[in-house]
Amino acid sequence: MRKLRLGMVGGGQGAFIGGVHRIAARLDGRWDLVAGALSSDPERARASAAELGLPPDRSYGDFAEMARAEAARADGIDAVAIVTPNHMHAAPAVAFLDAGIHVICDKPLAATRADAEAIAAAVARSGRQFILTHNYTAYPLMRQAREMIAQGELGEIRVVQVEYAQDWLTEETSNKQADWRTDPARSGAGGCVGDIGTHAFNLACFVTGLEPEALLADLGTFVPGRRVDDNVQVLLRFRGGARGMLWASQVAVGNENALRLRVYGSKGGLEWAQETPNAMSFTRFGAPRQTLTRGGAGATPAGQTLLRVPPGHPEGYLEGFATLYAEAADLIGGLADGTPPAGTQLPGIGDGLAGMRFIGACIDSSRANGVWTDL
Amino acid sequence: MRKLRLGMVGGGQGAFIGGVHRIAARLDGRWDLVAGALSSDPERARASAAELGLPPDRSYGDFAEMARAEAARADGIDAVAIVTPNHMHAAPAVAFLDAGIHVICDKPLAATRADAEAIAAAVARSGRQFILTHNYTAYPLMRQAREMIAQGELGEIRVVQVEYAQDWLTEETSNKQADWRTDPARSGAGGCVGDIGTHAFNLACFVTGLEPEALLADLGTFVPGRRVDDNVQVLLRFRGGARGMLWASQVAVGNENALRLRVYGSKGGLEWAQETPNAMSFTRFGAPRQTLTRGGAGATPAGQTLLRVPPGHPEGYLEGFATLYAEAADLIGGLADGTPPAGTQLPGIGDGLAGMRFIGACIDSSRANGVWTDL
Amino acid sequence: MRKLRLGMVGGGQGAFIGGVHRIAARLDGRWDLVAGALSSDPERARASAAELGLPPDRSYGDFAEMARAEAARADGIDAVAIVTPNHMHAAPAVAFLDAGIHVICDKPLAATRADAEAIAAAVARSGRQFILTHNYTAYPLMRQAREMIAQGELGEIRVVQVEYAQDWLTEETSNKQADWRTDPARSGAGGCVGDIGTHAFNLACFVTGLEPEALLADLGTFVPGRRVDDNVQVLLRFRGGARGMLWASQVAVGNENALRLRVYGSKGGLEWAQETPNAMSFTRFGAPRQTLTRGGAGATPAGQTLLRVPPGHPEGYLEGFATLYAEAADLIGGLADGTPPAGTQLPGIGDGLAGMRFIGACIDSSRANGVWTDL
Amino acid sequence: MRKLRLGMVGGGQGAFIGGVHRIAARLDGRWDLVAGALSSDPERARASAAELGLPPDRSYGDFAEMARAEAARADGIDAVAIVTPNHMHAAPAVAFLDAGIHVICDKPLAATRADAEAIAAAVARSGRQFILTHNYTAYPLMRQAREMIAQGELGEIRVVQVEYAQDWLTEETSNKQADWRTDPARSGAGGCVGDIGTHAFNLACFVTGLEPEALLADLGTFVPGRRVDDNVQVLLRFRGGARGMLWASQVAVGNENALRLRVYGSKGGLEWAQETPNAMSFTRFGAPRQTLTRGGAGATPAGQTLLRVPPGHPEGYLEGFATLYAEAADLIGGLADGTPPAGTQLPGIGDGLAGMRFIGACIDSSRANGVWTDL
Fold first, then answer.
1. pLDDT digit string (tens) for C316-353?
2. In a shared domain, residues C161 and C302
3. Which chain C residues are within 8 Å of D369, Cβ to Cβ?
4. DSSP-assigned letters across all residues of B7-43
5. Which terminal Cβ of chain D has fewer Cβ within 10 Å, N or C?
6. Would you say residue D158 lies in a domain?
7. Same domain, A148 and A234
8. Residue A230 lies in a domain
């Protein structure tokens, strides 16, 4: 398999998620990072590119130039990773898609509905791939959970409890990561709901395969002066009758990154927590609770997605993220070779739009003091 | 200290909670069970009394006779425990209170609001004690949590997540316990919400000391043909601005009796689960998570409530229940001796009425398709 | 069933284990405490008896007088509980047995081998019951583990890892409990090995049903000036080829009462920890790990020993202890009525002697710098 | 920083640990794999090299040729990773060291003491770096534990309990991984003791900083026909008086890769388990147990070793392994540039020799039926 060529927009010095994307792209040896517009600050862009060993002629001052230049090269990038703050997703995404280059974009899709629709339109007209890095869906046990539910192991799904608790914004905080996430101009109108609520919502839908129908939300802001929500409480209704609750918080003291999903059906229940991702609890009604491990006894085919090391050798956040990049390589490389894979579990534009509807509905419902709002 | 004399209404053969009350009363050696109207079925009442070694002349055919007779005896009972199904709380409670006998009553207070008010009126006019066995409040770590919060260890409370998940009603079930709990005529209009939702609500209020202001509920019934709710999802607002979520379910496969409380404030967070009641997680913002154990390092005075065995020697459900009986003995014996305790943490009529308001508001809100309803 | 009459030797004010025995005797309502020689200090004996509501004429100044007097009464005690420090077990045990009274005795059996043999001889000549309160064997899941192993669910047992870690003697400590346990004249030559090592050894043998063949021990004393061991490390060999390790420590900082047993056979493995006694891990080779709960799905008949409350309602240390007293009532009451139970799982004199051999062999092996020593 | 050039001996198709080394080398972007002698089977060597994208002229038929050729190239490899079975470590290690090429070698050091000494001699005469991939030492919390102990946070170390339990060899097993590990000609005389016992021993010594003085071992083989040990039970004595127990097993049903370390001192205790490597329990005597997380509150400088993602975003086995490769790049690149780092925590030849002494002493002690054997 040819190694694919990756470009990056954003992710310069001091960024968090850009570094994660780079490790993820490297881990399975399927991508080479060869080009970038790493910062809107030219000095930082240059220095970041040098640090990463990018050839100087492929360190671009802005994404538009990069899209044009890379599209024109015979050895141009196969895909671009967009790892900027939310309000800076749409412009580069559209530029690269329109230049014929596949896009891997961090979540949520965009800061505004208009931006989101612009991206969706570009995806549609370009025919290019658009991959949204809802990385938590790529944990092997989440793939396995989805497969078990699809195969009816839990019976008819009744109750979905999902939560994502952090505490890093418990007090007024100022740093590169906090600043843009609490600035509506950069993050969009949703704070916590966009940053982590969308992950929780996406994961619940991915795993259960249920279609969300409506929600009712109560968004709160506990830190004085904060301009976006920092605590999100939502009731969910799914088509077919299942009910859910979603809680996301950035002020839940004692929680680092506690994404947790629990699903209960007429025949069984599943419980999983992101901070210990190599085990999942599964109970068939009337039988003892089982602990299913990543790739361990009882692993389904989907649960054996890209196992790099045997059970008991913990994989983590970066491996899940890397799986997205490996699958992106399968997809994009396969398309280039005329051998696309039969299907993919990669999150895409549809997930991005669903996330935007989720954010919007949460804000609308909450502003109306809690009314059921269609999704 | 004189051992006090206890009577019991309900709790005959085949009952569950009656046996729990008897063990709880016995455990600390403060009560002798001396009289009972153990069943509405005279044969079962007699047999049950014989099994428990009650003197035949104090095994009564009905509670009214029992109240009259015991009130007339010089060695009459000091208190009566009422352990019947919900719809059978009010009549005996009123009878005993009006006969001047203190009442210890299982929760929820009653099946209907009218019944609840009748009890409250009898409490008021009789001046007798009324103790409602919200037993989970008596776990030492819940007493400690309440004290820590009252002392400001968590700062201002922001978020309260409480849940009570069981799975025993996942399928259509018929037995003595299930039958009355799923029959609105006996349990009241609320099923899961009354049986376990009230425990969760009560515990959240007890521990946080917050006053609940309003709720918004979505009650569901997943088992076909069931006439009461079996899954309860509630948003809560507390006076002062704290927000909460409450989930109670009897169809959450894999959960036996998973009452769990999490409280987050501006300075710290607490997390506790009833199934492992001897440990509680506590985090001060910015410091490592601590595991506080029953009576262990860092135990506050309230956390040392009736420690019978040292840390590491697990106490459980029955010991918590017994603490209510021991404190009831302190209170009732103290009143009899003219030496009542300075205060008490025992749940009482106020908690019972709050629970009824909770049930009613949940039902009302849910029937209106989810509207904020005052408490 | 007639309530049985219990006497007690030791257990006066300030004692720990005496109070535990009294709660255990009370919990299931099978025993009345009616007589005692509660302290060797007459003043404390009187005060303790008054506090417990014993009739003054049955509060005795010494055990010998008590044995004579109770044996002579028509309503004399059915059994006596001996809850004194180790060096004070033999004299009262022999006196009561020889007076025809059944004995329930705290562990270890005695402080010296001579004492142990004196008790054994008295048991043999009296034909009375002798019950040693190795309470951990009475946890329902330990009964279930024993049954599962006996039925071959684990295959042939290969490895037994047992440990009992505490930290309360990490530093030089002086209080009623610590003083006698670290005084060879009162505890016997073994410190930690006798106090908790015997529990670990007994539990491992009880659950596995294996016969211990030899051991090799390394006893250590870490606290300067301490006259007995406070850390015990032992290799074990069982008849049939199984191997084991036993670790007991009173200086393992962070451990309150961490008795833990793990057993592995050719077909399966079991893991259990006393501090969370309502769950046990069970794995069939090649299948997912299961969590078996007290009385929950998959509970065997033995695992349903005296379930007082349903799964998810935690029982603990006192309930296990109470099971010994309830079974003692079945046994002693049954013998009195001519209807003894078909069998019993109660620990007895054989366990006591095995424990003494264990202590002796540990000390001998360790003094010889670690040599295999027969049991 | 220049990317360094890596070669590999072993690790062809079907290998396990070779792939791990490659991911580890890639993850932080510090190494390019440019040459290999990937298999002793020329066909497999070629195919493996092609799969990895190695240039054909740098896919060698044997390690000796590779050492010569690479040493002669201006752009020759900076280091070689040796990932063959144990009996094939010494010859290539010596060849590359003598060719002036640094070596990164999988553990244990060798299959025989003679081999180990040959490697040590080559290290000494060549002056080249020799890094042994005891990867578990590179988990950030193990670095932090070592630092905390070195700084006296636990006081004087008293007790070290280390274990490494697996179950994959519970039955007779035949596959590429099992075959060589149970063949004394390839694994050396130790089976389980060499494969995983050495990891446990190394980790205990690394973290505590204690010098092991003597051991006493009981090795067992439970699977009929197996020619090496599959269960290892060891008593340890450290210089200064600390005592330890080490258990390693490949037949402990229910355990995947359960390396666990517990250390207790006069002031505190630490407990950690490899399968959940992002949390460590720490207790100061008399204070509540704390959960320290990777990079979380209370992280020491050493605990912040190469944090790639924030707390709550789990890192795992591969990240620990990658840290060794990143530090190897710092060391080897630094030496090349004349800017070697001030110190290193990388395991080296000394650890390898200590591991060989450990294996030898275990076998000797066990054959002598358990005698204390100097280390």
1. 999 999 999 999 999 999 999 999 999 999 999 999 99
2. yes
3. 372
4. EEES--TT-SHHHHHHHHHHHTT-EEEEEEE--SSHH
5. N
6. yes
7. yes
8. yes
Q: Are residues C57 and C179 in the same domain?
A: no
Averaged pLDDT, A15-35: 96
What kind and span of H or E run contains B118? helix B113-126
Average pLDDT, chain D: 96
Kindly compute the dihedral angle of the four CA atoms of residues A102, A106, A110, A111, in this order, to the nearest 10 degrees: -150
Write out chain D residues lying below 8 Å of A308, CB-based: 19-20, 23, 318
Is the CB of residue A141 less than 8 Å from the CB of residue A300? no
In terms of Cα–Cα distance, which of D239, D150, D145, D199 is closest to D354?
A: D199
Cα separation, B232 vs B254, whole angstroms: 17
**Half-sphere exposure of residue C46: CA atoms within 13 angstroms, side-chain side:** 2
pLDDT above 90 coverage of chain B, percent: 93
Q: What are phi and psi of D163, to 5 degrees?
A: -150, 155
Task: Please provide the DSSP assignment of B283-351 as one string.
Answer: EETTS-EEEEETTSTT--SGGGTT--S-TTS---HHHHHHHHHHHHHHHHHHHHHT---S------HHH
Of C253, C262, C371, the CB nearest to D285: C253
B292 reaches D (C-beta below 8 A): yes
In sign, the C-alpha dihedral spanning D281, D285, D288, D294 is negative
CA distances from A361 to A219, B28, B96 (A): 11, 55, 54
Any B CB within 8 A of C68 CB:
no
Residue D52 belongs to domain with CATH number: 3.40.50.720
**What CATH number did the domain enclosing C274 receive?**
3.30.360.10
Contact criterion met (CB < 8 Å) for C317 and B317: no
For an interface test with D, the pick among B289, B292, B300 (most D C-beta atoms closer than 10 Å) comes out as B289
Number of domains in chain A: 2
What average pLDDT does range B138-142 have in this prediction?
98
Provide the token pair at A287: 């039988």
SS3 at position D75: coil
Place of tokens 């077909």: C267
Are the beta carbons of A19 and A81 closer than 8 angstroms? no
Same domain, A303 and A171: yes
Quote the strand ranges of D130-267, DSSP E: 130-132, 157-165, 212-220, 231-238, 243-249, 258-265
Q: Which of A231, A235, A369 sits opposite B372 (nearest CB)?
A: A369
* Chain B residue numbers touching D291 (CB-CB < 8 A): 288-291
Do B38 and B71 belong to one domain?
yes
Asked if C220 and C163 touch (Cβ cutoff 8 Å), the reply is no
Indicate the pTM of the whole model: 0.97
- Measured distance CA(B18)–CA(C309) in Å, rounded: 11
> Could you tell me the two tokens for B77?
């009972």
Residues 6 or more apart whose Cβ sits within 8 Å of residue C57 = none
Provide the number of CB pairs (under 8 Å) joining chain A to chain D. 100
Shortest distance, CA B372 to any CA of chain A (angstroms):
8
Measured between alpha carbons, how far is residue C81 from residues C50, C67, C96, C102 in Å? Answer: 18, 12, 10, 9
Please give, rounded to a whole number of angstroms, the shortest distance from the CA of A285 to a CA of chain C.
9
| Residues A133, A21 contacting (CB under 8 angstroms) | yes
- What range does the domain containing B45 cover? 4-128
State the Cα–Cα distance between residues D149 and D269, nearest whole angstrom: 10
Tell me if C290 and A290 make a contact (CB, 8 A cut-off).
Answer: yes
Confidence of residue C42 (pLDDT cuts 50, 70, 90): confident
Q: Which of D79, D106, D128 is the last residue of a domain?
A: D128
Q: Is C208 helix (H, G, I), strand (E, B) or coil?
A: helix
In this structure, the number of other CB atoms found within 10 A of the CB of residue D337 comes to 10
Close Cβ partners of D25 (under 8 Å, ≥ 6 residues apart): D6, D31, D33, D81, D322, D325
Asked if residue C38 lies in contact with residue C58, where contact means CB atoms within 8 angstroms, the answer is: no
| Smallest Cα distance from D267 to chain B, Å | 14
Read off the pLDDT of each residue in A222-239 and give the average, rounded to a whole number: 97
